[in-house]
Amino acid sequence: MKAKVNERATGGQAPRKRSRTRPAPPKRELEPMRIAKAIAHAGLCSRRDAEKWIEAGRVSVNGTVLTTPAHVVSAEDTILVDGEPLPSLHAPRLWRYNKPKGLVTSHKDPEGRPTVFANLPDTLPRVVSIGRLDINTEGLLLLTTDGALARHLELPSTGWVRRYRVRAHGQVSQGALDALKGGVTIDGIRYGPIEAKIERTQGSNVWLLIGLREGKNREVKRIAAHLGLTVTRLIRTSFGPFSLGDLPTGTVDEVKRKVIADQLGPTLARELGVKS
Which of 134, 146, 178, 253 is catalytic? Predict the structure, then answer.
C-alpha cells in the first residue's frame, strides 16, 4: 500500500468555473467506448445512471436517439444529453472534502434536508461523490469530476480500507473487537473482515478506531449495535491512501493529478485518462 495522501489545505478552494489565471486541466481525446462510459467520463453522472438516461431517451448520437447503452462512440460523433453537447472530456480531478454533520450526500433530497453538493464552494465544477456518508457522519468524502473513477474507487473489490474514529456509548472489550477480524453476520447480512481497537475510554463512552473495506450501508453503526454500543459520533478519517489530515470542516482540497495516477497504477490511470 502506498503512503497516505495528506495534503495540507491551501486555504483556497478548487474552482467551479474555469479560472482566468489557472490553466485548464488537460483534455483527453474520446477513444472509442460505449456511450454510457463516455457520459460517465465526462462527469455528468455514473455509468449506471447514464444507462438509465439512455433508456429514458435523453441521449442522442448524430441526431439519433439511443435505445441501448451498448452503442460505441468516438471523437467523431456528436453526442447530446438532454439536447446539450457532451462536455469536453478532461482528465479526472479529485478533491478531499471534510463533510460536516447534518448534510445529506445527494444532489437533491426529497425531504428538503441540506445536501453536500449545495454546500460546496461555488468555484467547484460539477462533481460526484465516491461513495456516501450518511447525514450524521462527518469526515473525509472524496469528490471527482469523473463518474467512471468514482465507480471504480467505491467498489469493495478495489480493496481500499475506509477508516473511522467512533465514539460510542457503552462498554466493549478488545477481545470482542478482535473477534471481528474474521467478519461477522448481523441480521442475515455478512460483513467482511473488520479491524477494530479501543483508542480510549471517556466516562461512559468509548472511542474506537475501525477499518473496513466494504462500505455497506450503515455498516459501522450496525456493527456497534451488535456489540451493544450506541454510536454518538462517527468520523471517517481516511479512504484508501487518502487521509483527512488537518483539512478544516466544510472545506475542500484538490489532489494533484500525479498523486491520483500513482495511486491508481499505470494501467488503470491510462484507462481512466489520468496523466501525471
Answer: 134
